[in-house]
Specification:
Number of helices: 5
Radius of gyration: 27 Å
Largest sheet: 18 strands, mixed
Length: 816
């Protein structure tokens, strides 16, 4: 469930929105989502008005929602109120307090505590209760006794109010109980007439209709409306991340050029208003965001067909292609592009890619344009499934492909995703059936990649209209069709704490950490972003956090588009001592590093990145007794990196959990490392889905020493993936062992997956797919050092410790 905060509604509105008491000249909020129909009764107007998306909301406005309708109101950039169907509420103000009067119906409220000033609060009032909050997420429902919804008047004794708190506290005052009752996290209370009941556990269905999850009571009579209603709580949770940047950090040392910090977002900030578009939830990450599109795009989840998109060629919106359904949520839709009847001639980026690819014979394209600002960071996210009837029976000359790209206002394109008939499929990834939908048929036994996702940072260097482009095309013929399914597309603006862009340089001569936190709770989008030929030089590390809790939904550090960060320190680039931390819930790695330039590597013949986005002499991340949740720790793309210390070092009872590959060398990356790459000392690393180390996309990793090191009772757990994964004709050479155990013993590597049948090589079960053969693997020494001090255990009968995919993918472990 998305995290939420309750607010003392009365105090919040008055402080959030300075309003002239004598006239409704200043809005107190804005409509960020409107599905169905809602009206507003305004004191300055004789008749009610029909509400529209992005309408302003003024003090004393009385909002009423119709059946199967939903409204979301962003109040002053500090609170998001989601109003369900058949509800009536009024927003009022008085000194130091904002109040939402809920006459009937149900609302969810999320307040960003970090944006509240001392003394500010927000209250929700119903006919028989007052709930006051600061920085809380909760649901309030009120009705006349004996009804599920009510709009008529009545005394307090005739009403029932239910309050459920996701995260609190909420202070509840009832007529018969003048002393406030405090309701805390995951608790609730009912007020029947004037009398409150005992505090209870939060109701299991309290947030139904406010968060994305499959319905449990059967399909709605209006699924499209129910889908829109079901996103409110996710959006409310994101509000706390988007609108609560912490106070600016001190800039240490000296700098030239411009270093931009995260702006304070106000009610007049159109970027935030655009971010909270209807039919979409910006990806707060973590939990289930379903297939909802989000942010600066319209209809990113295709709930309204192709509304907001431009289709050139053949395609449609479908709910399933045989057994292929969206990754989550029974109410979600998918966009389909295919090369069957209706496709156009030509298209695609092929000839302009590096290296170039053949042009499309015919193709179909889906695009959407949106406004961007120069030197601002955007995060683009999408899920797709590439399908081709060319595989495996047709010749490889028919190398059909899918391209995802973003075109900046100057017309320059950046590739976001690329799938090809010749490299994207394997005999284990084919359609189990023949299925038809939207004018396209995938035949049994033909190529299906399965759903894949990308999350990529991007910075335009000029302002204007950018265009997101998805292309699928035939190569060499038009007789055999290919297609792509698209799902959950979003573009979200990310204002980082420190931004070094085109023409900027940042130089710090201080040997201490550039950003340091002690005994604090901090929330910010990203800590530092360096891009577009910008240069940052630090004499010390980037971050040191002591007994603090950090929430960073994007990256801790992103270096991209020709930017570079150089440090002269051998300390950890980021050190987390104690605390509980969440990073990258948007899908980005903590350290998201990519380059632009490539060259043919003389030793391997592969085209590899030559840019060095980061030069640092110590670990990238070291934790000491810290608890960390992240999507990934490190992702390297088209880059060269020389590591003289572990990329990830855990000690002192640390617990780190990653949702996907912990370390991901995703594409054309060359890394030269003094092992181990990952070191655990009395700590635990858990990978929910993926590998602890992935080397893919034609990357090269050379390790002098051991690959993984575990000592003093450390545990490395793979819950749905191998310890090591190689793909895409990548190469890995390790002079030491795959795993080295040490210290006092008691170490364990636990592997759970279903990747076998496997070939056992030097006692290690290896999954060979995509044309890989046992000869691709060379283990000449000990794959495991000091086995008396630890063990690799298989927690499922078909588990592979290593996965090797692709005829050109090779692994060498010398075990020295």
């Amino acid at each position: 469930m998305a995290q939420a905060r309750l607010i003392n509604l009365g105090a919040l509105l008055s402080v959030l929105f300075p309003i002239l008491a004598s006239a409704q000249t200043q809005p107190v909020g804005v409509i960020t989502t409107l599905t169905g129909q809602a009206t507003v009764a305004r004191t300055t107007l004789r008749d009610p008005l029909i509400l529209k998306f992005k309408d302003d909301v003024f003090e004393r406005d009385r909002i009423s929602t119709a059946e199967k309708s939903i409204v979301r109101v962003l109040l002053g950039g500090k609170a998001l109120v989601t109003v369900r169907e058949l509800s009536v509420l009024t927003i009022t103000e008085e000194t130091g307090r904002a109040t939402i009067d809920l006459s009937s119906g149900k609302i969810a409220v999320a307040v960003a505590k970090a944006r509240m000033r001392p003394g500010e609060s927000l209250e929700v009032r119903t006919p028989n209760v007052v709930a006051a909050v600061r920085g809380t997420v909760f649901v309030v429902e009120t009705r006349q006794a004996g009804t599920s919804q009510a709009s008529g008047a009545g005394s307090a004794t005739s009403f029932v109010t239910n309050i459920d708190v996701d995260s609190g506290p909420v202070e509840v005052t009832a007529p018969s109980q003048p002393t406030p009752i405090t309701v805390l996290d995951k608790k609730g209370i009912d007020i029947v007439g004037t009398t409150p009941t005992l505090i209870r556990d939060i109701r299991a269905d309290a947030f139904d209709g406010f968060r994305t999850q499959p319905m449990t009571a059967g399909p709605s009579s209006a699924p499209a409306n129910e889908k829109a209603i079901s996103r409110g709580q996710d959006q409310a949770a994101l509000l706390a991340l988007v609108v609560s940047p912490p106070p600016p950090l001190p800039n240490t040392g000296t700098s030239s050029g411009t270093v931009l910090q995260a702006p304070i977002i106000s009610t007049t900030n159109t970027k935030l208003q655009d971010l909270l578009q209807p039919n979409g939830v910006p990806p707060a990450g973590g939990g289930n965001s379903g297939g909802n599109g989000a942010g600066l795009l319209q209809n990113g989840g295709f709930e309204s067909g192709f509304q907001g998109w431009t289709l050139t060629g053949a395609g449609g919106v479908i709910t399933a292609l045989g057994s292929i359904k969206p990754p989550a949520g029974q109410f979600d839709d998918m966009g389909l592009l295919h090369t069957s009847v209706g496709a156009i001639q030509g298209g695609g980026l092929g000839p302009s890619l590096n290296p170039p690819l053949p042009p499309f014979t015919d193709s179909s394209k889906l695009t959407q344009s949106f406004a961007v600002t120069a030197n601002s960071l955007y995060v683009i996210k999408a899920t797709y499934n590439f399908l081709s009837n060319e595989f495996p029976t047709q010749a490889t000359v028919f190398d059909d492909r899918f391209e995802g790209s973003i075109k900046d206002p100057a017309g320059n394109s950046t590739l976001l995703a690329l799938e090809r008939r010749n490299i994207s499929f394997s005999p284990s990834t084919v359609s189990p059936e023949t299925a038809t939908a939207g004018g396209f048929t995938i035949f049994q036994g033909n190529g299906v990649t399965g759903f894949k996702s990308f999350t990529q940072s991007w910075v335009p260097t000029t302002s204007g209209q950018a265009t997101l482009v998805f292309d699928v095309g035939d190569v060499g013929d038009m007789a055999v069709q290919s297609a792509v399914l698209l799902y959950g597309i979003s573009v979200v603006q990310d204002p980082p704490r420190y931004f070094v862009g085109s023409g900027d340089t940042l130089t710090s001569t201080q040997r201490g950490a550039y950003a340091e936190f002690a005994n604090q709770r901090q929330t910010f989008d990203s800590l530092m972003v360096v891009c577009c030929q910008g240069r940052a030089t630090l004499a010390g590390p980037l971050l040191r956090s002591t007994s603090s809790d950090l929430t960073v939904p994007f990256s801790l550090l992103s270096v991209l588009q020709g930017g570079s960060l150089i440090t002269s320190s051998t300390e950890p680039l980021a050190l987390l001592q104690g605390g509980t931390h969440t990073f990258g819930s948007s899908g980005l790695a903590m350290f998201d590093l990519s380059g632009l330039q490539t060259a043919v590597d003389t030793q391997t013949g592969l085209s590899l990145g030559t840019d060095q986005p980061l030069q640092h002499g110590g670990p990238l991340l070291e934790t000491d007794g810290a608890t960390v949740q992240a999507t990934k720790v490190v992702q390297l793309d088209t880059a060269l990196f020389e590591a003289t210390a572990p990329l990830l070092s855990l000690r002192g009872g640390s617990t780190v959990t990653t949702a996907a590959d912990t370390v991901d060398l995703s594409y054309r990356t060359k890394v030269i490392s003094l092992g181990p790459v990952v070191r655990l000392d009395a700590s635990t690393l858990t990978v929910i889905s993926g590998a602890a180390l992935h080397v893919g996309g034609g990357s090269v990793l050379r390790v002098t020493g051991d690959l993984f090191s575990l000592s003093n009772g450390s545990t490395l757990r793979l819950l749905n993936g191998p310890l090591l994964s190689l793909s895409g004709n990548s190469l890995l050479t390790v002079t030491g062992a795959l795993v080295a155990f040490g210290g006092a013993g008691g170490n364990a590597v636990s592997v759970t997956n279903s990747l076998c049948p496997c070939t056992t090589i030097a006692g290690i079960p290896v999954s060979l797919t995509g044309g890989a053969l046992p000869g691709n693997i060379s283990i000449t020494g000990a794959a495991v050092k000091n086995p008396a001090l630890g063990a690799i255990t298989l927690s499922s009968p078909n588990a592979a410790v290593i996965r090797v995919d692709g005829a050109g993918t090779k692994l060498t472990i010398k075990g020295l």
